[in-house]
């Protein structure tokens, strides 16, 4: 896979995550899980780690930083939460 092919990279990432198109969709599932309500769009990288702890792994792809936790992945753009995937 060519690292310049952003669409292909996104497709591969999405194949092992369950993405939501909006925070409302993610929040509906989140409400049934044990996830802190403090994690919302715009929360900083440091705030995420303060609430959830250090992630299992971090993946940086272009400007997106993916935080992998046991039951979710948090996508940070410019150091702030932009998406959550369960």
Describe the structure.
By secondary structure, this protein is of the alpha+beta class. The protein has one domain (6-85). The protein is 30% helix and 27% strand. It is built from three helices and four strands, in the order αααββββ. A four-stranded antiparallel beta sheet has the order 1-2-3-4, covered by helices on one side. Strand 3 (72-77) and strand 4 form a beta hairpin. The longest helix has 10 residues, at 6-15. The radius of gyration is 13 Å and the shape is globular.
CA-based gyration radius: 13 Å
Tell me the fraction of residues in β-strands, as a range.
Answer: 25-35%
The low-pLDDT segments are none
Shape: globular
Number of helical stretches of at least 4 residues: 3
Strand order of the largest sheet: 1-2-3-4
Class by SSE composition: alpha+beta
Give the tally of β-strands.
4
